Amino acid sequence: MIEKLVKNVLDTLAGLGDSEKVALFHVLENQCAGELAGGFNTGNFIGTGKIFDFQDSPLQEVLNSKQPMTFHGQLIDDVPFPSYQETHSSFECLCLPLLGEETDVIGIAVIAQPMGITQPDYRLRTLNMLRTLIAAAMENARLFQLATTDSLTGLYVRRYFDIRLHEESVRLRRHGGTLALLLMDIDFFKQVNDTYGHPIGDDVLKDLAQLLLECTRQDFDLPCRFGGEEFIILLPQTNLEGALVLAERIRKRCEQHPFAASQLAQALRVTVSIGISTMEQATWMPTEHLIQQADEMLYAAKQAGRNQIFYPQSVSPSVS
User: Which of 29, 86, 214, 229 is catalytic?
Assistant: First the structure.
Protein backbone atom coordinates (compact mmCIF):
# COMPACT_ATOMS: atom_id res chain seq x y z
CA MET A 1 0.00 0.00 0.00
CA ILE A 2 2.73 2.48 0.97
CA GLU A 3 4.75 1.63 -2.13
CA LYS A 4 1.70 2.34 -4.27
CA LEU A 5 1.31 5.71 -2.55
CA VAL A 6 4.98 6.55 -3.13
CA LYS A 7 4.75 5.58 -6.79
CA ASN A 8 1.67 7.77 -7.24
CA VAL A 9 3.44 10.68 -5.56
CA LEU A 10 6.54 10.23 -7.72
CA ASP A 11 4.44 9.99 -10.87
CA THR A 12 2.63 13.22 -9.95
CA LEU A 13 5.90 15.02 -9.20
CA ALA A 14 7.41 13.82 -12.47
CA GLY A 15 4.39 15.00 -14.40
CA LEU A 16 4.10 18.42 -12.79
CA GLY A 17 7.85 18.94 -12.82
CA ASP A 18 8.18 17.70 -16.41
CA SER A 19 10.99 15.47 -15.19
CA GLU A 20 12.24 11.93 -15.81
CA LYS A 21 14.19 11.78 -12.56
CA VAL A 22 12.56 12.31 -9.17
CA ALA A 23 13.20 11.09 -5.64
CA LEU A 24 11.32 11.15 -2.37
CA PHE A 25 13.18 11.03 0.95
CA HIS A 26 11.75 10.43 4.40
CA VAL A 27 13.75 12.49 6.90
CA LEU A 28 15.02 10.43 9.83
CA GLU A 29 14.56 11.57 13.43
CA ASN A 30 18.12 12.81 13.79
CA GLN A 31 17.47 15.26 10.92
CA CYS A 32 20.91 14.38 9.52
CA ALA A 33 19.92 11.68 7.04
CA GLY A 34 17.01 10.46 5.01
CA GLU A 35 15.63 7.10 3.91
CA LEU A 36 14.76 6.79 0.24
CA ALA A 37 11.01 6.29 0.07
CA GLY A 38 11.33 5.74 -3.68
CA GLY A 39 12.53 7.24 -6.94
CA PHE A 40 11.94 7.30 -10.68
CA ASN A 41 14.72 7.36 -13.27
CA THR A 42 13.50 7.41 -16.89
CA GLY A 43 10.51 5.26 -16.01
CA ASN A 44 12.30 2.81 -13.74
CA PHE A 45 11.26 2.66 -10.09
CA ILE A 46 14.11 2.83 -7.57
CA GLY A 47 13.34 0.76 -4.48
CA THR A 48 13.09 1.99 -0.94
CA GLY A 49 15.27 1.61 2.12
CA LYS A 50 18.66 3.12 1.27
CA ILE A 51 19.91 5.72 3.75
CA PHE A 52 21.41 8.95 2.39
CA ASP A 53 23.60 11.20 4.54
CA PHE A 54 22.37 14.80 4.47
CA GLN A 55 25.21 16.33 6.46
CA ASP A 56 27.31 18.84 4.49
CA SER A 57 24.93 18.41 1.55
CA PRO A 58 22.40 20.86 0.10
CA LEU A 59 19.60 18.81 1.62
CA GLN A 60 20.81 19.80 5.09
CA GLU A 61 20.39 23.42 4.01
CA VAL A 62 16.89 22.65 2.74
CA LEU A 63 16.08 21.07 6.11
CA ASN A 64 17.29 24.14 7.97
CA SER A 65 15.63 26.72 5.71
CA LYS A 66 12.39 24.78 5.14
CA GLN A 67 12.22 26.49 1.76
CA PRO A 68 12.35 25.12 -1.82
CA MET A 69 15.86 25.47 -3.26
CA THR A 70 17.68 24.57 -6.48
CA PHE A 71 21.21 23.14 -6.73
CA HIS A 72 23.50 21.39 -9.19
CA GLY A 73 22.39 17.83 -9.83
CA GLN A 74 24.08 14.44 -9.81
CA LEU A 75 23.04 10.79 -9.81
CA ILE A 76 23.80 8.71 -6.73
CA ASP A 77 22.68 5.10 -7.06
CA ASP A 78 20.44 6.21 -9.96
CA VAL A 79 18.72 8.75 -7.70
CA PRO A 80 18.84 12.52 -8.39
CA PHE A 81 20.70 14.20 -5.54
CA PRO A 82 21.75 17.86 -5.17
CA SER A 83 25.36 19.00 -5.04
CA TYR A 84 27.13 22.24 -4.12
CA GLN A 85 29.75 21.53 -6.79
CA GLU A 86 29.30 21.72 -10.53
CA THR A 87 28.79 18.26 -11.97
CA HIS A 88 29.02 16.72 -15.41
CA SER A 89 25.30 15.98 -15.44
CA SER A 90 22.88 17.87 -17.65
CA PHE A 91 20.38 18.62 -14.90
CA GLU A 92 19.95 20.44 -11.63
CA CYS A 93 17.79 19.53 -8.65
CA LEU A 94 14.74 21.36 -7.39
CA CYS A 95 14.40 20.38 -3.71
CA LEU A 96 11.00 20.71 -2.03
CA PRO A 97 10.81 20.31 1.78
CA LEU A 98 7.67 18.51 2.96
CA LEU A 99 6.39 19.99 6.22
CA GLY A 100 4.47 18.07 8.88
CA GLU A 101 1.78 19.41 11.17
CA GLU A 102 4.31 21.01 13.54
CA THR A 103 6.23 22.57 10.61
CA ASP A 104 9.00 19.99 10.97
CA VAL A 105 10.45 18.75 7.70
CA ILE A 106 9.34 15.12 7.44
CA GLY A 107 10.45 14.56 3.86
CA ILE A 108 12.12 16.10 0.82
CA ALA A 109 11.13 15.72 -2.82
CA VAL A 110 13.93 16.11 -5.37
CA ILE A 111 13.01 16.85 -8.98
CA ALA A 112 15.63 16.88 -11.74
CA GLN A 113 15.24 19.63 -14.32
CA PRO A 114 17.39 20.76 -17.28
CA MET A 115 20.27 23.09 -16.45
CA GLY A 116 19.38 26.76 -16.55
CA ILE A 117 15.66 26.22 -17.18
CA THR A 118 13.42 27.71 -14.50
CA GLN A 119 10.04 26.21 -13.81
CA PRO A 120 7.12 28.46 -14.88
CA ASP A 121 5.48 30.35 -11.99
CA TYR A 122 2.19 28.46 -12.29
CA ARG A 123 4.03 25.13 -12.08
CA LEU A 124 6.04 26.23 -9.06
CA ARG A 125 2.83 27.35 -7.33
CA THR A 126 1.24 23.99 -8.07
CA LEU A 127 4.27 22.10 -6.78
CA ASN A 128 4.32 24.30 -3.69
CA MET A 129 0.68 23.49 -2.92
CA LEU A 130 1.23 19.83 -3.74
CA ARG A 131 4.05 19.42 -1.23
CA THR A 132 1.59 20.09 1.62
CA LEU A 133 -0.66 17.31 0.37
CA ILE A 134 2.30 14.97 -0.11
CA ALA A 135 3.49 15.63 3.44
CA ALA A 136 0.03 14.83 4.82
CA ALA A 137 -0.13 11.65 2.76
CA MET A 138 3.33 10.55 3.95
CA GLU A 139 2.42 11.19 7.58
CA ASN A 140 -0.85 9.27 7.25
CA ALA A 141 1.00 6.41 5.56
CA ARG A 142 3.55 6.38 8.38
CA LEU A 143 0.82 6.20 11.02
CA PHE A 144 -0.96 3.47 9.07
CA GLN A 145 2.26 1.48 8.86
CA LEU A 146 2.88 1.82 12.60
CA ALA A 147 -0.64 0.59 13.34
CA THR A 148 -0.65 -2.34 10.94
CA THR A 149 2.96 -3.56 10.70
CA ASP A 150 4.89 -5.82 13.05
CA SER A 151 7.96 -3.92 14.21
CA LEU A 152 10.24 -6.98 14.21
CA THR A 153 9.43 -8.69 10.92
CA GLY A 154 7.94 -5.85 8.86
CA LEU A 155 4.93 -8.03 8.01
CA TYR A 156 1.34 -7.02 8.67
CA VAL A 157 -0.10 -7.80 12.10
CA ARG A 158 -3.04 -10.04 13.03
CA ARG A 159 -5.44 -7.10 13.35
CA TYR A 160 -4.90 -6.00 9.76
CA PHE A 161 -5.04 -9.60 8.55
CA ASP A 162 -8.47 -10.03 10.13
CA ILE A 163 -9.74 -6.90 8.34
CA ARG A 164 -8.44 -8.04 4.96
CA LEU A 165 -9.70 -11.59 5.42
CA HIS A 166 -13.19 -10.27 6.18
CA GLU A 167 -13.10 -8.11 3.04
CA GLU A 168 -12.02 -11.02 0.86
CA SER A 169 -14.63 -13.28 2.43
CA VAL A 170 -17.42 -10.79 1.68
CA ARG A 171 -16.18 -10.39 -1.89
CA LEU A 172 -16.04 -14.15 -2.42
CA ARG A 173 -19.54 -14.72 -1.03
CA ARG A 174 -21.01 -12.05 -3.30
CA HIS A 175 -19.04 -12.53 -6.49
CA GLY A 176 -17.53 -16.01 -6.33
CA GLY A 177 -13.94 -17.07 -6.79
CA THR A 178 -11.53 -18.87 -4.49
CA LEU A 179 -9.59 -18.08 -1.34
CA ALA A 180 -6.81 -19.89 0.51
CA LEU A 181 -4.90 -19.55 3.77
CA LEU A 182 -1.46 -20.88 4.66
CA LEU A 183 -0.86 -21.07 8.40
CA MET A 184 2.70 -22.01 9.33
CA ASP A 185 4.75 -22.51 12.45
CA ILE A 186 8.52 -22.75 12.91
CA ASP A 187 9.44 -26.27 14.05
CA PHE A 188 11.17 -26.52 17.44
CA PHE A 189 11.43 -22.72 17.70
CA LYS A 190 11.58 -22.87 21.50
CA GLN A 191 14.81 -24.87 21.20
CA VAL A 192 16.31 -22.08 19.07
CA ASN A 193 15.54 -19.50 21.76
CA ASP A 194 16.68 -21.77 24.60
CA THR A 195 19.93 -22.75 22.86
CA TYR A 196 20.99 -19.53 21.14
CA GLY A 197 19.01 -16.83 22.91
CA HIS A 198 16.12 -14.61 21.88
CA PRO A 199 18.19 -12.24 19.68
CA ILE A 200 19.04 -15.19 17.41
CA GLY A 201 15.40 -16.27 17.56
CA ASP A 202 14.44 -12.77 16.39
CA ASP A 203 16.87 -13.08 13.48
CA VAL A 204 15.22 -16.36 12.49
CA LEU A 205 11.81 -14.68 12.53
CA LYS A 206 13.09 -11.82 10.38
CA ASP A 207 14.74 -14.21 7.92
CA LEU A 208 11.52 -16.19 7.56
CA ALA A 209 9.50 -13.02 7.03
CA GLN A 210 11.84 -12.02 4.21
CA LEU A 211 11.49 -15.46 2.61
CA LEU A 212 7.71 -15.13 2.70
CA LEU A 213 7.90 -11.75 0.99
CA GLU A 214 10.15 -13.20 -1.70
CA CYS A 215 7.88 -16.20 -2.30
CA THR A 216 4.54 -14.38 -2.44
CA ARG A 217 2.96 -12.10 -5.03
CA GLN A 218 3.63 -8.47 -4.22
CA ASP A 219 0.52 -6.29 -3.75
CA PHE A 220 -1.70 -9.38 -4.01
CA ASP A 221 -0.90 -12.00 -1.37
CA LEU A 222 -0.82 -10.89 2.27
CA PRO A 223 1.85 -12.49 4.50
CA CYS A 224 1.33 -11.63 8.18
CA ARG A 225 2.83 -12.43 11.55
CA PHE A 226 0.04 -14.31 13.27
CA GLY A 227 1.66 -14.41 16.69
CA GLY A 228 4.91 -15.64 18.19
CA GLU A 229 6.52 -17.97 15.65
CA GLU A 230 3.32 -18.42 13.64
CA PHE A 231 2.80 -16.77 10.25
CA ILE A 232 -0.24 -16.73 8.01
CA ILE A 233 -0.66 -15.84 4.34
CA LEU A 234 -3.92 -14.70 2.80
CA LEU A 235 -4.14 -15.82 -0.83
CA PRO A 236 -7.00 -14.16 -2.75
CA GLN A 237 -8.19 -15.87 -5.95
CA THR A 238 -6.14 -18.96 -5.13
CA ASN A 239 -7.37 -22.56 -5.16
CA LEU A 240 -5.92 -25.58 -3.36
CA GLU A 241 -3.53 -26.40 -6.19
CA GLY A 242 -2.07 -22.88 -6.14
CA ALA A 243 -1.84 -22.88 -2.35
CA LEU A 244 0.01 -26.21 -2.40
CA VAL A 245 2.53 -24.94 -4.96
CA LEU A 246 3.29 -21.89 -2.80
CA ALA A 247 3.39 -23.91 0.43
CA GLU A 248 5.91 -26.36 -1.02
CA ARG A 249 8.02 -23.49 -2.36
CA ILE A 250 8.13 -21.95 1.11
CA ARG A 251 8.83 -25.28 2.81
CA LYS A 252 11.78 -26.01 0.52
CA ARG A 253 13.18 -22.48 0.74
CA CYS A 254 13.12 -22.68 4.55
CA GLU A 255 14.69 -26.14 4.55
CA GLN A 256 17.59 -24.86 2.43
CA HIS A 257 18.02 -21.37 3.85
CA PRO A 258 20.97 -20.57 6.19
CA PHE A 259 19.12 -18.83 9.04
CA ALA A 260 20.95 -16.28 11.22
CA ALA A 261 24.04 -16.75 9.04
CA SER A 262 25.41 -13.29 9.86
CA GLN A 263 25.24 -13.95 13.61
CA LEU A 264 26.49 -17.51 13.98
CA ALA A 265 29.62 -19.32 12.89
CA GLN A 266 27.40 -22.08 11.56
CA ALA A 267 24.00 -21.06 10.22
CA LEU A 268 20.87 -22.67 11.60
CA ARG A 269 18.74 -25.07 9.61
CA VAL A 270 15.12 -24.33 10.29
CA THR A 271 11.96 -25.97 8.96
CA VAL A 272 8.29 -25.02 9.01
CA SER A 273 5.05 -26.97 9.18
CA ILE A 274 2.16 -25.62 7.10
CA GLY A 275 -1.60 -26.06 7.25
CA ILE A 276 -3.82 -25.09 4.32
CA SER A 277 -7.48 -24.15 4.23
CA THR A 278 -9.50 -23.07 1.20
CA MET A 279 -13.00 -22.05 0.27
CA GLU A 280 -15.05 -20.94 -2.69
CA GLN A 281 -18.54 -19.53 -3.00
CA ALA A 282 -20.21 -22.96 -2.82
CA THR A 283 -18.24 -23.92 0.31
CA TRP A 284 -18.29 -20.52 2.01
CA MET A 285 -17.73 -20.56 5.76
CA PRO A 286 -17.24 -17.88 8.45
CA THR A 287 -13.67 -16.60 8.55
CA GLU A 288 -13.05 -18.00 12.03
CA HIS A 289 -13.91 -21.47 10.71
CA LEU A 290 -11.50 -21.01 7.80
CA ILE A 291 -8.71 -20.10 10.24
CA GLN A 292 -9.65 -23.01 12.51
CA GLN A 293 -9.44 -25.39 9.54
CA ALA A 294 -5.93 -24.14 8.71
CA ASP A 295 -4.96 -24.47 12.38
CA GLU A 296 -6.19 -28.08 12.46
CA MET A 297 -4.16 -28.86 9.35
CA LEU A 298 -1.08 -27.24 10.91
CA TYR A 299 -1.55 -29.38 14.02
CA ALA A 300 -1.82 -32.48 11.85
CA ALA A 301 1.42 -31.55 10.07
CA LYS A 302 3.15 -31.20 13.44
CA GLN A 303 1.80 -34.52 14.66
CA ALA A 304 2.95 -36.24 11.45
CA GLY A 305 6.58 -35.31 12.08
CA ARG A 306 6.89 -31.59 11.14
CA ASN A 307 8.40 -30.04 8.00
CA GLN A 308 5.23 -31.09 6.21
CA ILE A 309 2.16 -29.61 4.52
CA PHE A 310 -1.37 -30.73 5.36
CA TYR A 311 -4.71 -29.79 3.79
CA PRO A 312 -8.27 -31.05 4.25
CA GLN A 313 -8.33 -34.63 2.99
CA SER A 314 -11.85 -34.17 1.65
CA VAL A 315 -10.35 -32.11 -1.18
CA SER A 316 -8.27 -33.93 -3.77
CA PRO A 317 -5.60 -31.70 -5.33
CA SER A 318 -4.44 -32.23 -8.87
CA VAL A 319 -0.77 -31.63 -8.06
CA SER A 320 1.60 -33.90 -6.19
Answer: 229
